[in-house]
Design a protein that fits this description.
The protein is an alpha+beta fold. The chain has two domains: 56 residues; 104 residues, no CATH class. 43% of the residues lie in helices and 19% in strands. The termini are far apart.
Length: 177
Amino acid sequence: MDSPTWAELSAAERSAVDGLIQRDHRLAAVARLREAFRAEIRPGLHEALDVVAERYRELGGRFERRPTPPLDLAALTEQVEALPGGAVAIEALWDGDSDGWCVDLIALTDAPVAEHRLATVRHGGDLRLFNGAIPPWPEAREAETVGRALAERFGVPFHFAGPDEPDIDAPRWRTTS
């Protein structure tokens, strides 16, 4: 790695940062890297993020990408029951961040008109694209299966436009109903 910031770290600090990355604790790795320096020479947040991102790339698949735990229909049912006004639909939406794609399971209400995130389903980062592990997208299958069951339980529609591939511009339930 060519980063002068990384080169300035002691072997012990490098090992500690890499250990956090291998456990997929990105923010903790950024914090550890920054805290290893005295305040007057501490790298900025963007620089630290860049160094940690480069370490992720160098470590490749040698870190644990923790999938979200399986969705719990009973717990999700309790969440929906606690919503003001009750749900009018359950929707699954693609979302993504620097780690890759995920699916949010949302309850929609009309009184008041709102969206309530019930859960986020992630089954790994986008490194899966390069090693041929996806498609199919297991997070989409899980969100669709549990989302449909939840919608049936409350007698409301379930909507997931585009479960076959990530699409953040897919039509929403409120615009199609």
